[in-house]
Write a structure and sequence with these properties.
With about 350 residues, this protein is an alpha/beta fold. It is built from 8 helices and 16 strands.
Length: about 350
């Protein structure tokens, strides 16, 4: 079969590989029907992100058709159309019993696709456990909304949950690409009163307002820490959710978050090998009472089914994130490159197969 693979850092190519075999009695072989390149794919491929072996198949945002299932799979059969969560833990890992759903058996073991097993940029791919991972695609949910639930929505909401947003809180979302926009939507749903969104692209700014942002912080108009402190009377925000930027953005989030109870919730993917810096003064010389959390998104079947109910009941509208739709495997490269280049009109791209 054909697969779109990272042949070496910075270079993707179509290669010929063996079609995956059924991975055991609980597993499934699947065929993508809609995929979305992720910003983390961009970081890994083009920005010296997590190293991969040669000819590694990337991709983890996918809707698919079930092709084959193991003999012990109960809830899915060939021909079913399904959502494939970006996070597919092995629910038999003992760390699950500790409540560790993202790294239950070690670093990134909850995320298998494109990490420990080949990803979804291929004509076929496989998962080791269908019943605990896959989600039936409801007839009343669009492909666009469903595809956004497998990673973008759950990641944005994870950042909000880690930030412990409460009724009446003031929250700053640093970066309003697709995941940041879902963090804005999630913060509103959790009861935040004042939601400050840091970004400049007009299409993202308008969506941020639609999803619940009450103020836009433009980093081109001055230091964002000063702008946030001015907007909060010098106190700072109850929580900062980092969804973009660079190492300096992390430092800025620490500075703008309030003393005593503030939470910095990081979803950002930092490339390179240098360190993130915590500012001593704003860290209270080590006694600021500010909590820092770095999160990988939550996944699994039940999580995604709950998000689908949010879509079905009209609580969220993630389909609005899709600004560029491509058709066929031959346009996958275009969909990936536009996510790398981020033109002004882009929020998120998808490919229908």
């Amino acid at each position: 079969m054909k697969a779109y693979a990272l042949v070496e850092p910075g270079r993707m190519e179509w290669i010929d590989v063996e079609k995956p075999e059924l991975p055991g009695d609980y597993g499934a072989v699947l065929k993508p029907i809609a995929i979305a390149p992720c910003s983390s794919d961009v970081h890994t491929i083009f920005e010296n992100g997590s190293p991969k072996p040669p000819n590694w198949i990337m991709g983890h945002e996918c809707l698919a058709e079930v092709v084959e299932t193991g003999r012990l799979v109960k809830d899915f059969k060939p021909g079913d159309r399904v959502l494939v969560p970006a996070i597919t833990p092995d629910w038999r890992d003992l760390g699950i019993q500790e409540g560790n759903f993202t790294h239950p058996a070690g670093s990134f073991t909850g995320m298998k696709l494109s990490i420990s097993i080949p990803g979804i940029f291929a004509e076929y791919f496989s998962l080791p456990d269908a019943d605990t991972s896959l989600v039936h695609l409801p007839e009343d949910v669009s492909l666009e909304a469903a595809l956004m639930c497998v990673d973008v929505v759950t990641t944005g909401f994870t950042g909000v949950e880690a930030a412990e947003v409460k009724f009446g809180d003031t929250v700053c979302v640093l970066g309003i690409g697709p995941i940041g926009l879902m963090a804005v939507a999630g913060a509103k749903l959790r009861g935040a009163a004042d939601i400050l969104a840091v970004g400049t692209r007009p299409v993202c700014v308008e969506l941020a307002k639609k999803y619940g942002a009450t103020r836009i912080i433009n980093y081109k108009e001055g230091d964002i820490v000063s702008q946030v402190l001015d907007a909060t009377g010098g106190r700072g925000v109850d929580s900062s959710i980092i969804v973009g930027g660079n190492q300096n953005t992390f430092t800025q989030a620490v500075k703008m978050t309030c003393y005593g109870t503030g939470i910095i919730s990081n979803l950002n993917y930092y490339t390179g090998e240098d360190d993130l810096m915590v500012p001593k003064a704003e860290w209270g010389r080590g006694m600021a009472g500010k909590t820092i959390r770095g999160e990988l998104c939550r996944g699994g079947r039940v999580r995604i089914e709950r998000l689908l109910r949010m879509v079905q009941c009209g609580r969220i509208h993630p389909e609005d994130l899709i600004t560029h739709t491509y058709h066929g495997w031959e346009e996958l490269e275009d969909a990936l490159i536009i996510m790398r280049d981020k033109p002004a009109e882009l929020v998120k791209s998808m490919v229908l197969l």
